Amino acid sequence: MIISRDIPLVSVIMPVFNAEEFVEQAIASILAQSYKKLEFLIIDDGSKDSTVEKIIQFKDSRIRLLKNEKNLGIAASLNKGIIESKGKYIARMDADDISLQDRIEKQFNFMEKNPQVGILGTGYYEINKHGERKKAYIYPHDDMEIKWKLLTGPVFPHPTVMFRKDVLIAFNINYNINYSATQDYELWSRLIHYTDGTNLPIPLLEYRHHYNSFSETNTIIQERLRFQVSAQSLTKLTKTRVVSARLAAMFEKVVNYNFDSLSLPELKKGCELFFHALDNFYHCTYNSNISKTKWRMELLLDFFNHFEKYIRKNIVDNESKNNTPSIEFIQLRIIRKSLRCMLVFLKPEQSIYYPPGIIVYSIQLMKRLLISHDKAIIKY
User: Fold this and answer.
1) Cβ count within 10 A of residue 249
2) Residues 6+ apart with CB under 8 A from 180
C-alpha cells in the first residue's frame, strides 16, 4: 500500500480495559477504513483478560499498543494517547463499537474543507450485543444550537468525535481525570469556547448499548457529574452568579419544557436562570459568524408556546377544582394573557426580519413577567 506523504495523518485513539468480547471487531473496523493514512493508538489500561493477546494478533504497522502499568482510568488513558499521537486530527474510538468503513474519510474531508470546525461528531446506529441495529440517532449540526445545548448535556456522540490536535495544544486542553464518567462532555464544554463544533447528519458508527446493573450505576454517576459540568458552564456564562448543580438541574428542566416536574419556586428560579443565560448567550455570540437572529427568535417563540400551554393547563386544573385563586395563580393568568399577545405579535415566519433589539426586549419583558421582583436565591 503506497500512501502519499502529503496526505495528513489521522490518529485514532482507543482506550481499552477488559474488552476481550468486542475489541477485535472494533480494531478490524478501523483497519478497514477507506482513509488509509492512520495511526491507531490503543491504550491498554491494565486489562486482566485476553484483551492484549487479541490486540497483538493484528499484524498491522499502523497499530501502536501502549500499556499503562496500572489502571489509570479512561481520561488519563485518553490524555496519554493525545500526547503520543502524531496526527493532524484525533479520532475517538471505543473498544466495543464499530466504525463504518467511510467514517474517517468523511470526517477528514469535512474538517479539511471547514478549518473553523475543531470538533466533529456524526450520527450513529445503536446496536445490541449481537450487533443488530436497533435505531439510528442524528445529532444537532448548527453551531449555535450546539453551543446552547452544551449548557445542559452532551451534543456529540463521544466515540464518533474527531478533533483538531492543534486546537487542544494551543489552549492547553486535555481530559479532566476528575470527570471519568463524563470526561468527553467536560472537555467539549471547555473546548467549544475556542472553536466551532458540528455533527455530520449521517450515522457513521455502530454504538453498542449495554443493559446491565453496572451501566445503570454508571448512569447515576454520569448524571451527577453532568450537572456539575453544566453548573460550571452556566456560572462562566452568567458571570455574576455561582450556579449550583441543583439549580443546573432546574435549568435543564426549563430548557426541555418539563415545567410540571418543578414546584413554583423552582420554576421561577429555573426561568430566571434561563433568561439570564439566554441574555448573556445572545451577547456572547452576537458578534460571531454563527449568530443567527432567526435561531434566537425561534428559540424564544418555542419557549413561549410551551410555557403558554403549561399555564393554560394549570388554569384549567385550578378552575376544575374550584380553588380560590392564589396570588401565584393570578400571576399565571396575567402572564398567559401577555404571552398570547406576544405570540400574535411575533410571527414565526417573520422572525428572520426582526431587528436584534426585539430579542433583547422580549427577554427583558419575560424576565419581568415570570420572575418576582425579589431577588432569587441562586446558590443552594
Assistant:
1) 20
2) 73, 74, 75
